[in-house]
Design a protein that fits this description.
Length: about 500
């Protein structure tokens, strides 16, 4: 059976190869439908006619080959994911992107033997087509060969790393080590087992991964960082730090401390949420500069930004190299900032009040909530700070009908949160004709104007107030209801910000 498949494949490829050097005049079937042949990987390349036939044919060829490379890369990515992410804490988009990057580079640099076996030019559409194939048996052979060669590949990277380390080129050494690990991880995923080898041809085999991890760890333990400027800044919520974070990377080489250039680094917020600058590298003097573009929230008044060594390839395999990855996370320095969490929050307040179905011209509860917010150091935005295009009746309508989308559009440029809602009072009963009673209810929410989500909701009902007429009993009920709302609102807002 195997021989018959091989013969059929040979006949199939021979027929196609007869026209590989030229352009078919008759439209081949593969142009419109890829042949159903599980024995081969196939790619159909397309290029528009630009008037340069040689260049256009090459573009179609490249496109066809790229499709096969992409298919192989996708398969390798799947193998990596299955083998390394089963127990991983880093099953994130960034990890998948790293797997894809490693797999794509592996496929491009490793896989050979893809052939363009047929071409076609469509004179009506003015399009060049190319048909590329790679036998699956050949791909499997190359994977097996790669597994056999991984020891030599790691040995070469290891030698380059040792040479770079001796010359004081620390980043080059780390980079070679990381490449060796990435290559090793791919092959281990393919074989579904850890690989032993004699790295130094000493006659003694050892776990390659363990050896490489240990030597990377030794380098990381000799990297130190100094803070130059940007520490202890004052921060405001939803704003960036005014000064850049500047530091220096140093390597302890024997008794000598040398600047560490070209070291890839990144910023990470430890006890805060926000946005930081893109990844960066140290300059020729080991100096790095990073920026905090925005601080959205902080869990304490002292926030921390950590500048750390950045090797995404290692992050993707953190579950496989926990000890090494811990060292990577510790290789850096801290920049602290102070933030008054409450004072940095801008709040707009608008409460609608109705008594016996009649809207109150001025809501008592609005003033009380504003007073409580200011006493607790929140920054309150008054109506005069709203854009001129925003009319009070538009705000009133949006609040009464829970139109959060309009509210965020009106307020998001001037405030971070909006405290909105309804308080209503209605007549209850009369006691012996002497006291009048009313009942008040409340539905007050705090809206995050960046997301439109409720972060605090306060609901009250049946709050009684008494007076010598229904007018005063309504006011008394609304006042008692407001006091209860204020307490829950402040407590909930402070909790939500943490």
């Amino acid at each position: 059976m195997r021989r018959s498949l091989t013969v059929s494949l040979f006949v199939f490829l021979f027929g196609l190869l007869s026209n590989a050097s030229g352009i078919d005049e008759k439209r081949p079937k593969w142009v419109d439908q890829v042949p159903n042949n599980p024995e081969i990987l196939q790619g159909i390349g397309i290029a528009n006619d630009t008037g340069n036939p040689e260049t256009d044919r090459k573009r179609a060829d490249t496109d066809a080959i790229a499709q096969i490379i992409h298919e192989i890369s996708t398969s390798v990515t799947s193998q990596l994911t299955d083998f390394y992410q089963e127990d991983s804490r880093s099953g994130q988009k960034s990890t998948q992107e790293t797997f894809t990057k490693i797999s794509s580079q592996f496929a491009q640099e490793t896989i050979t033997g893809i052939k363009i076996i047929q071409r076609y030019y469509d004179p009506q559409k003015k399009v060049y087509y190319a048909y590329a194939v790679l036998e699956r048996t050949e791909l499997e052979r190359q994977f097996r060969e790669q597994a056999e060669r991984v020891s030599k590949i790691c040995r070469d990277y290891h030698l380059h790393a040792q040479t770079a380390l001796a010359a004081g080129k620390i980043y080059d050494a780390l980079n070679n080590y990381v490449k060796a690990l990435a290559e090793l991880f791919i092959v281990q995923a393919s074989l579904k087992q850890k690989i032993e080898s004699d790295l130094e041809l000493s006659g003694k085999k050892e776990m390659l991964q363990v050896r490489l991890e240990n030597e990377i760890s030794q380098i990381l333990r000799n990297i130190y960082f100094e803070v130059i400027s940007g520490d202890n800044q004052n921060a405001q919520r939803n704003r960036g730090l005014s000064q850049p974070l500047v530091g220096k990377a140093i390597y302890q080489l024997a008794t000598q401390k040398i600047p560490l250039p070209n070291l890839p680094m990144r910023l990470t917020l430890v006890n805060a949420v926000g946005q930081v600058s893109a990844d960066f590298t140290t300059d020729a003097n080991g100096i790095f500069t990073g920026f905090v573009n925005q601080i959205e929230s902080a869990s304490s008044e002292i926030g921390v930004v950590k500048a750390v060594v950045n090797f995404p390839e290692l992050v993707a395999f953190r579950s496989q190299i926990p000890a090494l990855f811990k060292l990577v996370e510790q290789s850096g320095c801290d920049f602290k900032f102070r933030i008054d969490v409450a004072a940095s929050v801008r709040v707009f307040v608008y409460i609608c009040e109705d008594a016996d179905g009649v809207p109150a011209p001025r809501a008592y509860s609005t003033g009380e909530i504003i007073k409580a917010l200011i006493q607790n150091k929140f920054t309150v935005i008054n109506p005069g700070q709203l854009p001129p295009s925003v009319q009070p009746n538009a705000i009133d309508f949006a609040v009464r009908y829970n139109d959060y989308q309009s509210l965020t559009g009106y307020l998001s440029t001037v405030a971070d949160y909006a405290v909105i809602g309804m308080l209503t009072a209605e007549q209850a009963e009369v006691s012996s004709g002497v006291l009048y009673f009313s009942k008040a209810s409340a539905d007050v929410k705090t809206i995050d104007l960046m997301t439109g989500r409720d972060i605090v909701t306060v609901i009250q009902s049946g709050i009684k107030g008494a007076g010598n007429d229904f007018n005063t009993s309504n006011k008394a009920a609304l006042k008692k209801c407001t006091e209860s709302v204020v307490q829950e609102l402040i407590k909930g807002l402070q909790s939500a910000l943490k």
